[in-house]
Amino acid sequence: MKILNVDQIRALDQATIQNEPIAPLNLMERAALAFVDWFVDHFPDTTLTKIFCGLGNNGGDGLAIARLLLERQYPVEVHVVRYAPRESDDFMHNHRRLKLVTEKVNYIEFSRDIPALRHNEVVIDAILGSGLSRPTEGIVKSTIEAINRAPATVVAVDIASGLYADQPNAEDDVIIEPDYTITFQLPKLAFVLPKNGRYVGEWHTVDIRLHKRYIDLAPTPYYFTHPREARLLLHKRDRYSHKGTFGHALLLVGSYGKMGAAVLSARACLRSGVGLLTVQIPRCGYPVLQTAVPEAMCRPDGHQYVLTGPSEVEGPPPGDYTTVGIGPGIGKAPETLAMFRELLPTLKKPIVVDADALNLLSENRELLEQVPPNSILTPHPKEFERLTQTWKDDYEKLGILRDFAKTHQVVVVLKGAYSAVATPAGEIHFNGTGNPGLSTGGTGDVLTGVLTALLAQGYDPVEAAVLGVYAHGLAGDRVAEQRGPIGMVASDVVDALRWE
Ligand SMILES: NC(=O)C1=CN([C@@H]2O[C@H](COP(=O)(O)OP(=O)(O)OC[C@H]3O[C@@H](n4cnc5c(N)ncnc54)[C@H](OP(=O)(O)O)[C@@H]3O)[C@@H](O)[C@H]2O)[C@@H](O)CC1
Ligand SMILES: [K+]
């Protein structure tokens, strides 16, 4: 699904109002209803809910939510943060409607008006939404600080108050730190950026039927992979297919002491549907690989400890394989660099480049030009920084990422909490699967195996990256569900891969 910027969201709001058509107030009511549906599902016990409203439309949402919850017999307190003399029309209208249901509205003008907040209460944050135009200050800031200090559960309406939806905040900005963010229809770019984790919490979108045609036509470089979209990418298998149909991949992996990386990438590649797999490893890894991964063919390198290229075993040149995956555990020995240097110009089809192969690229930038177009590079942030430059915030990093993918005509999977797949066309697809349990040695090697298998099966490289990252994260989520995220190991992730 698309991620739109604030101006586009505002225009989408107007397009919906004009084209559906629907009165602005009714659209706000629809948004409030969608929020309330989620809320009563999630908080079925009618615990005391304190709703903090600003004076714009986010505050209007909060007032409508208060009325709808009161109608459902929830004990609700409404606190309006009166920071300015100006209120939006829909705020005023909902204020009048609320007053027909309850007389009890508290107005916060000074710190002494801020209510005490306890741990068994729920706070709904509707102070500021996507209309944020400057840092929070004065009574708004004091109220946010009080909410952040409180032990109550906090649910933000649309976006945490004080957080910009599509531009960086300053380090010292005061922003709500919610447990949940319930946003309307589409996620905001801010939600998928690492620095913002504590200002987002667990986020969900609720459908408010905004104008579909506007969304379809709106230009944006940013997408979030919806589970439905990921499943659609999966190729169906023909019952007359045979192992040749699914390609023959070559993995160049491992070195002395790092043969585990070879085994993990090879097992993941096989578990991701490759037809045939050949693994080239330094000679010392031969018994390891033949024992741990009997399904793979093995090409022992001429060198005992590191990869150098030539093998004692006859075989086609790397360029003849359907695809090549290189990097996990290979180290940076001069012989391995020499092999990489010789190998790259012989490859014409997209490959997967990971780990030390990426570090070799950073240290020998001229090799970047030799990487076949549409290859998939899978750096973590440190490796990406070595390949490019440092950045001052997540937004600058996205710019650098898009430029890099466009300039070098490669697909970049920047790994992280929301892994970002950057395409040669300059688009970015954020992935939502995965959990902190995946931050453990070897999971990157697993991803390389997955992506290599998908390329071997003829997936378009961008689709391979989007689907592969999604499936890899989902496997991690399955493991976390079964045995908890702590103590998860990369082999668990291989075993949990599913392609359906
Ligand atoms: N889009 C959709 O599809 C739908 C959107 N809906 C809802 O509308 C919300 C957006 O509403 P909104 O535009 O009124 O913005 P919101 O943030 O409530 O208030 C802006 C006001 O606050 C002011 N202000 C700004 N920064 C400030 C600060 N630091 N401290 C103090 N004040 C500050 C700002 O002042 P100005 O910049 O004009 O000077 C302006 O007066 C959106 O988040 C969602 O909840 C749903 O109802 C329906 C579907
Ligand atoms: K809010």
Automatic annotation (TrEMBL):
Domain (YjeF C-terminal) ranges: 226-500
Co-factor binding details: Binds 1 potassium ion per subunit.
Binding annotation for AMP: K415, G416, A417, Y418, S419, G444
GO function term, MF aspect, one: ADP-dependent NAD(P)H-hydrate dehydratase activity
Sequence positions that bind (6S)-NADPHX: 57-61, 129-135, 158, 261, 329, 380, 445
Boundaries of every YjeF N-terminal domain copy: 9-216
InterPro entries xrefs: Carbohydrate_kinase_pred_CS, CARKD, Nnr, Ribokinase-like, YjeF_N_dom, YjeF_N_dom_sf
Record field: catalytic activity: (6S)-NADHX + ADP = AMP + phosphate + NADH + H(+); (6R)-NADHX = (6S)-NADHX; (6S)-NADPHX + ADP = AMP + phosphate + NADPH + H(+); (6R)-NADPHX = (6S)-NADPHX
Sorted UniProt keywords: ATP-binding, Isomerase, Lyase, Metal-binding, Multifunctional enzyme, NAD, NADP, Nucleotide-binding, Potassium
The protein's required cofactors: Mg(2+); K(+)
Domain of life, source organism: Bacteria
One GO process term, biological-process aspect: nicotinamide nucleotide metabolic process
Database matches in SUPFAM superfamilies: Ribokinase-like, YjeF N-terminal domain-like
Record-listed E.C. numbers: 4.2.1.136, 5.1.99.6
Annotated positions binding K(+): N58, D125, S161
CDD domains for this protein: YXKO-related
Recorded family membership: Belongs to the NnrD/CARKD family.
HAMAP family to which the protein is assigned, alphabetical: NADHX_dehydratase, NADHX_epimerase
Role: Catalyzes the epimerization of the S- and R-forms of NAD(P)HX, a damaged form of NAD(P)H that is a result of enzymatic or heat-dependent hydration. This is a prerequisite for the S-specific NAD(P)H-hydrate dehydratase to allow the repair of both epimers of NAD(P)HX.
NCBIfam families hit by this protein: yjeF_cterm, yjeF_nterm
Subunit structure and binding partners: Homotetramer.
Record-given protein name: Bifunctional NAD(P)H-hydrate repair enzyme
Organism: Spirosoma taeanense
